């Protein structure tokens, strides 16, 4: 990956027609939205699950550190991250070459907006890639039901049949690990795995840990 300065130089020199970059990084360097810089609409260009979330970790026995970390816990951001990871877990029966992104957002009226987009490669009866999107809005207590309903809409028939045939127990393990203080067993600390999250357990489907919808606005 080229440094952001090199990418911008190649953009302005005409080598690239467009460049996609993190708005937070551009904002830190003094750039703002203009005729040449446009913010992508998350509803149109879906972020990765968990995108933008910052997670602070420490040992469970660090009694002096836990209270300090707890002071920085953002309840809304943590809730959005848990909902996004829950939705990602429910999509675990997708083929390895499929791509999925999504976000959870707590709206000003307290309602939760769940969005998800799934891209399936060409093949298996289709000559071109397939793109499917879904959105649900509802109260917090209905987020789990909304997530299940979205998966029924998004998964292709083969993946859905495989999912329904498997154990439907919720991913309680990662729900507890995302709360503060984290109650993590030693063998579960490496959630991404040595191979970048491609090992065989269900937990690896959560990597990379992508972010809550409480992201830093570009104007702050």
Summarize the model shown.
This protein has helices at 4-12, 23-28, 66-71, 75-90, 143-154, 157-165, 172-177, and strands at residues 49-50, 99-106, 112-120, 130-138.
Strand content: 5-15%
Number of helices: 7
Mean pLDDT: 71
CATH superfamily of the largest domain: Porphobilinogen deaminase, C-terminal domain
Spatial strand arrangement across the major sheet = 2-3-4
Task: Please give the CATH class of the largest domain.
Answer: Alpha Beta
What is the CATH topology assignment of the largest domain? Double Stranded RNA Binding Domain
Question: What is the 3D shape?
Answer: globular
Q: State the separation between the terminal residues, measured CA to CA.
A: 27 Å
Examine the secondary-structure arrangement and name the CATH architecture of the largest domain: 2-Layer Sandwich
**Percent range for helical residues?**
25-40%
State the secondary-structure class.
alpha+beta
Runs in which pLDDT lies below 50 for 5 or more consecutive residues are 167-220
Instruction: Give the oligomeric state.
Output: single chain
In the residues, how many domains can be counted?
A: 2
Region (Disordered): 171-220
Domain Porphobilinogen deaminase N-terminal: 5-64
Keywords: Porphyrin biosynthesis, Transferase
Biased composition (Acidic residues): 183-193
What do you see in this structure?
The protein has 220 residues and is of the alpha+beta class. The chain has helices spanning 4-12, 23-28, 66-71, 75-90, 143-154, 157-165, 172-177, and strands at 49-50, 99-106, 112-120, 130-138. The protein folds into two domains: 1-39, no CATH class; 42-211, Porphobilinogen deaminase, C-terminal domain (Double Stranded RNA Binding Domain). It is built from seven helices and four strands. It has a three-stranded antiparallel β-sheet. Helix 4 runs parallel beside helix 5. The protein is globular and about 55 Å long.
């Amino acid at each position: 990956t080229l440094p952001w300065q090199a990418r911008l130089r190649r953009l302005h020199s005409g080598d690239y027609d467009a460049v996609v970059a993190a708005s937070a990084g551009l904002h830190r360097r003094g750039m703002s939205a203009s005729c040449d810089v446009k913010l992508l609409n998350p509803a149109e260009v879906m972020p990765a699950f968990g995108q933008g979330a910052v997670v602070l970790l420490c040992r469970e026995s660090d009694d002096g550190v836990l209270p300090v970390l707890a002071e920085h816990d953002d309840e809304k951001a943590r809730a959005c991250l848990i909902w996004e990871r829950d939705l990602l877990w429910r999509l675990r029966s997708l083929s390895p070459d499929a791509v999925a992104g999504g976000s959870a957002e707590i709206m000003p009226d307290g309602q939760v907006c769940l969005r998800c987009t799934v891209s399936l490669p060409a093949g298996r009866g289709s000559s071109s890639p397939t793109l499917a999107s879904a959105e649900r809005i509802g109260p917090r207590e209905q987020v789990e039901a909304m997530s299940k309903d979205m998966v029924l809409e998004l998964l292709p028939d083969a993946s859905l049949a495989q999912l329904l045939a498997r154990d439907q127990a919720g991913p309680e393990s990662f729900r507890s690990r995302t709360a503060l203080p984290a109650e993590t067993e030693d063998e579960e600390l490496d959630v991404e795995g040595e191979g970048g999250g491609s090992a065989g357990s269900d937990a690896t489907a959560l990597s990379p840990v992508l972010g809550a919808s409480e992201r830093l606005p570009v104007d702050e």
